[in-house]
Amino acid sequence: MVAAERRRFADLIDPLTPEQLDTPSLCGEWTVREVLGHVVSPFAARRSWFLPLLLRSRFSLHRANAELARMVARRPVAELTAELRRNARNPFAPPVVGQLGQLTDLQVHAQDVRRPLGLAYAVEPEHVRTSLDFLVSRRSVAFGGGRRRGLRFAATDLDWAWGDGPEVRGTAEAIMMALTGRTVVLPELTGDGAAVLRKRSAR
Description:
Elements: H1 2-13, H2 18-21, H3 32-44, H4 50-56, H5 61-72, H6 77-86, H7 98-117, H8 125-135, E1 152-155, E2 161-163, E3 167-170, H9 172-179, H10 192-202
Parallel strand pairs: 1-3
Antiparallel strand pairs: 1-2
Helix pairs in contact: 1-6, 1-7, 3-5, 3-6, 4-5, 7-8, 8-9
């Protein structure tokens, strides 16, 4: 699944124009180009960069990671997508969240890119189901696990539901994006729990 999503991400990026690549994504202050830099950074970054980055960021992994994405993104896009394809089956897995976190990261960032650009990019049902199961597990704390507390989530386009309490209904993609803090999808969600989720996301 991870290998397939890496290849799909490269396919999504390859035809983009320079203007599209410089469009702000849904991921913080990153452009589409910088999201690509983040996705490819485990394979394209030099080990010698990490310590200076950590020092400059005062040992904030979040800030160091953001700067690393920008550094990698300076390389030609064709080189980066080729690097991603070459490493499609690379066993890299982030600490704590592992391969499930990597799978989820790839799918969410693909939507971070395609939504601002208005591109069609359907999720793969089994891939997004696997990520939804991960996002409601204890291992997903790095993705903002507190948002799901006391709510029931139900996908309208997939046989998937989880939790107890007021219900949040929406497409599997919209639920995945909401569970990872993308507030842009909140108007796409319905049910008594949707208002609760909107309040939590506004804090």
